[in-house]
Amino acid sequence: MQEDDTLRWLPRLAARGGPRFLQIADALQGAVADGLLKPGDRLPPQRHLAALLDVDLTTITRAYDEARRRNLLEGRGARGTYVAAPKVELTAVLDLSMNTPPPPAGLDFDDLLKQGLSQVLMGADAALLMTYHLGGGSDVDRQAGAQWLKPMFGPVDAEQLVVCPGAQAAIAASILALTEPGDVILAEPMGYPGLRSAATQLGRQLIAVPADQHGMRPDSLEQACRQHQPALLYLNPTLQNPTATTMPLDRRQALLRMAQRHHVRIVEDDPYWLLAEAPPPPLASLAPEQVLYISTLSKCLTPGLRVAFVLVRDPVLRERFQAALRSFALMVSPLSAALATQWILGGSAYSLMEGVRKEARLRHRMARDLLAGRYSGAGDGLHVWLELPGYWSPHQLARAADSEGIAVTPAEAFASNLADASTVNAIRISLGSIKDRSRLQAGLQRLSQLLARRPDAFSTAVV
């Protein structure tokens, strides 16, 4: 194609048409869709295009970056930038298995990330971001953590916080700090699989305590304490993973009384509190010295930050916790911690979280409509716990869904005691991991149709 042909797509930039780099990227996308630009066509060098459109070079660079993000362009080194060939998806799995925050509508996450990193790099010594740091986070990181926890606790002493590389690391460090090999940890029958994994690897015994529609039962906790003399109690009381139960205040108070009576420390894993609609106060606000509190950014913002804030009010326990953490995770990545701090102190974290919260609630309404009669979610958070009709088992349903191109998580993945897994007939559906809302709708519709059929309607292909 002649150069004149490759310039036919050039847009007329409008003063009120939005950011110029997006106008250019949109024009590129339209030209590819209309056939004005075809795979393999070479685009003008960035400086040449900047001169043609009378914009600065940065605008063209951002436009090309955006076009690459949309899979429209590909760079070929010194040979230049070319229109990319269409990407063929060999799989079309609709992933309802991974609990990640949904992308907020109307918020450009790529731009938010680039701006945040740019602000971090402008305000920090790059060498300090790439070297070793003392564990537990810098003073400013802990101040950001104190601000993040303010909705749960009001003013928080930043010195009582430890910054960790994610909630899983915080759980493992808690087990090391609060228990000895062979000790018993109590938890609800269905819970976060990472707890079972950490307890098993560290040689601790995980015992399930019966729960009802409000969470762990106080009478069952007392019986378990008498029988097993546990060293630790693990609870996820708000939008519990996987059941989506939020424990009411009176149940929280009753469990705290039982734990105090038997001198049992509590780890409160609370990733969803900020996504919930008017949740009760955390256990750690009701019994500050007894509860170690974990709040991760993975569920409210993005898992890639790998940052969690742990509130440990007891200074002796805090030192033990930090020593345990250092035994396997020396520090949070300084760049990730700096970005999280920049977002929190600069306000971007709250815009992102509010967008996640709104999008999650829209998706819950969609799930309620499409899974009519089966939906039992709380209307917020990232997941739904779906009880199955008697003719389906969780394992059968997960396999059948997989054959339909849908990934879901069966109850057995969450069982604290694998021997009891067969007694729970449910699956967890995660609503955030499919970026496009229309694809999520298609997945939920397919799943609803699948639930209405019986397993004998499916046959296994033999090849």
From TrEMBL:
Source species: Comamonas koreensis
Coiled coil: none
Name of the protein described by the UniProt record: PLP-dependent aminotransferase family protein
Family the UniProt entry places it in: In the C-terminal section; belongs to the class-I pyridoxal-phosphate-dependent aminotransferase family.
CDD domains, alphabetized: AAT_like, WHTH_GntR
Domain named HTH gntR-type: residues: 18-86
UniProtKB keywords: Aminotransferase, DNA-binding, Pyridoxal phosphate, Transcription, Transcription regulation, Transferase
InterPro entries, A to Z: Aminotransferase_I/II_large, HTH_trans_reg/aminotransferase, PyrdxlP-dep_Trfase, PyrdxlP-dep_Trfase_major, Tscrpt_reg_HTH_GntR, WH-like_DNA-bd_sf, WH_DNA-bd_sf
Keyword flag Transcription: yes
Gene3D superfamilies: Type I PLP-dependent aspartate aminotransferase-like (Major domain), Winged helix-like DNA-binding domain superfamily/Winged helix DNA-binding domain
GO MF annotation, one: pyridoxal phosphate binding
Cross-referenced Pfam families: Aminotran_1_2 (PF00155), GntR (PF00392)
